[in-house]
Amino acid sequence: MDTETTPDLLSDLPLSISEIILSLLPIRDAVRMSTLSTKWRYRWANLPQLIFCDKCVGPSTDKSMVENRLIKFITHALLLHNGPIHKFKICTSILQSCPDIDQWLLFLSRNVVRELTLELGDGEWFRVPACLFSCKKLTLLELCRCELDPPPSFRGFSSLRTLTLNQVLVTPEVIENLISSCPLLESLTLSYYDGLDLNIDAPNLKCLHLEGVFKDLCLEHTPLLEVVSISLYMNTDEIQEHFEQLSGCNFVKFLGGVPNLRKLTGHVYFTKYLSIGIEQWTPSLTYSHLKVIELNQVSFEDMKELLVVLRLITNSPNLQELQISGSSNTNVTLEAPNVDFWETECPSGYTFKRLKTVKMTDMCGVPHEMELIKKLLGNSPVLEKLSIVPCIYVTELKVDMLVELVRLRRASPLAEILFTQE
């Protein structure tokens, strides 16, 4: 009879390998690995990354019970943890504001945490405790459904590179001071804000994502900005009143100091916002690095919005991809386009030298839309594909639009026109 013991290959794995295995598992499964052998017991407690979600505890119809289980699980994990915690993330729809979170953050503030994400469920918003602002080594901070009010002694996060605030209650003064006191900030996301006047001073900022009802926006000092995505929301009845209160040239305030811009995405009322004071602006900045422009819900009956579009694309000599969705009213835009306007803003001799892809959606076939398509087809020598998606509410103009598209001159022999209904 063979009395030799079978080698325990799993237990004899090098520590570095077992740590890699544990790091790839959900925290709940990593903790369960303690039952494999005495050598694996509490090995998870050395993980530098702790990520918690609803799946950390078993399902139950009793929401209060599940919440208590999750609180106990996270508290237990922190008490048993041994070593630095570089990343701490809670992403849950179950857990709401509770005193235990304060204790966790206090523990983390003494643990040199570098990445912190806190996304809580519906209910009472969590007020961020003062101890969070003592986490000086933070490089990433993501907060959702929280109330943010730094203590007077707070002087910023000197190492922070990524800041995401989603549905966070904060005053304009606090958010501006927070941004300007993070000198290394490279990525900023602000979502679901209501009525903010915002001036952004971030010399190292490269990516900016804004979503909400912003009264006014100014990129005060963002010379390295490369990627911008803006969604502006507002009540239809308040649009005219809101824009009449603005002064100056919004195009200059927002895009006048971003020479390194590579990708620009504007949703909803973005072109409407940029159109305020556009007639005051004399093009002086060339967006030499801008390769992708996406503009949504452009009103082609508004000549100022159209002017925003034309000045963007004609001052971006290396533009490669252009996407535009329309929101035209066919009842007011059937008059012929102003020939002088088009020749002034987009001369017949102008060439989109690097433009390869164009997609235009929600098109109604009205004159200004067709004039823009005509310019893009006739002045883009390397164009490969032009996609047109008509508005679903337009039926009688579709055939006329298709016939006119076929007749238009193409500067590129490779240009393909796709006329589809999404």
Relevant terms:
single chain; 422 residues; alpha/beta; Leucine-rich repeat, LRR (right-handed beta-alpha superhelix); 15-stranded parallel beta sheet; 12 helices; elongated
Task: Please characterize this protein's 3D structure.
- This is F-box/FBD/LRR-repeat protein At1g13570.
- The protein is an alpha/beta fold and 422 residues long.
- Helix content is 26%, strand content 25%.
- It has a 15-stranded parallel β-sheet that branches.
- The protein has a domain at 291-422: Leucine-rich repeat, LRR (right-handed beta-alpha superhelix).
- The protein has twelve helices and 15 strands.
- It is elongated and about 75 Å long.
Structural class: alpha/beta
Would you state the CATH class of the domain at 291-422? Answer: Alpha Beta
The CATH architecture of the domain at 291-422 can be named as Alpha-Beta Horseshoe
Structural Rg = 27 Å
Sequence stretches where pLDDT stays below 50 over 5 or more residues = none
Q: How much beta, percentage-wise? A: 15-25%
Q: Strands, helices and their partners?
A:
Layout: H1 15-23, H2 27-32, E1 49-53, H3 63-80, E2 87-91, H4 99-109, E3 115-119, E4 126-127, E5 140-147, E6 162-169, H5 172-180, E7 187-201, E8 207-221, E9 227-232, H6 239-244, H7 250-255, E10 263-268, H8 270-274, E11 292-298, H9 303-314, E12 321-326, H10 339-345, E13 357-363, H11 367-378, E14 385-390, H12 398-407, E15 416-419
Parallel strand pairs: 1-2, 2-3, 3-5, 4-5, 5-6, 6-7, 7-8, 8-9, 9-10, 10-11, 11-12, 12-13, 13-14, 14-15
